Amino acid sequence: MRTTIRAVAASILGLGIAFFAASGFAEVKEVRIAQQFGIGYLPLQMMAEKGLLEKHAKQLGLGDIKVTWSRFGGGAAMNDALLSGNLDFASGGVGPLLTIWDKTKGSLDVKGVAAINSMPLYLVTRNPNVKSIKDFTEQDKIALPAVKVSVQARTLQMAAAQAWGQDQYDRLDKLTVSMKHPDGVAAMLSGQSEITGHLTSPPYQQQLLQDGKMRKVMSSYDVLGGKSTFNTVWTTSKFRKDNPKTYQAFVAALKEAMEIINKDKAAATDVFMKQTNSKLDPEFVRKIVMDDENEFTMTPRNTMKYAEFMHKVEALRNRPKSWKDYFFPEVHNLSGG
């Protein structure tokens, strides 16, 4: 009799646990997502504006979830938040993604969820004597999001290696200064700052070039030999494993955000203006969003060139064989690079 009671109790408990998991109660009820500054984050801004993650989570049986959005000035700080458990999804340039993939390989195993765009990064100067990167001197300072580790910093190092040779890849590092994009723009436009160069992104680079005293020195597309990923989204393998439906909802939400943007880029501009409280001219921003140079896509492009360079200069211990090594399987069907 006691054996029967124990068996019945075990069955009830098993059913309860199964129901608990199937109902989605075992997964997180709050998802914390971080983005940075600029038009490159429009897919995430679209997700926030339309409540797409909440929508897809509900469709997958997770019920109502809370989505908390935050904004960081650079990928390095975002990675710290992810590793400390204060963030679920981080976003930023290819450099920070590769850095945290390498750092956590075999432990938290952070990988990319998807790319969120392909965009060129311009190095802009207000120094009339600078026509190429070889013209920068000790009197110049170049603003970028994070010295040595941001995608802008890595792009500048790659350009230096091309200009002076591989052993001189860090030649311009001593001229770089960590600065948020808006602060870098303000410093350049003031004309009073020590900042004479800014390696930035849309819309900040276009904003600078509206000033007749500014000129473009180089584009990341020139350095990488074509269109390349600027921003990606990443998370830990643990989060993906422990919250499979939430992860699935995130990927579906991001895909829908891309579809909405690419269906009507003019209308998508209004979402950027609203989400960022931008004071820029809407038509100025619309022109940037609709520029053929800028694409909103989940497909990684030219990321392996960053990976190979970073491994060569010993910024990565692990050398990936393919871009698929540092992106989760959900995007492996894409023709990435």
UniProtKB/TrEMBL annotation:
A Pfam family of this chain: NMT1_2
SUPFAM superfamilies noted in UniProt: Periplasmic binding protein-like II
Highest taxon listed in the record's lineage: Bacteria
UniProt xrefs under PANTHER family: ABC TRANSPORTER SUBSTRATE-BINDING PROTEIN, ALIPHATIC SULFONATES-BINDING PROTEIN-RELATED
Protein name: Nitrate ABC transporter substrate-binding protein
The species this protein was found in: Sulfurifustis variabilis
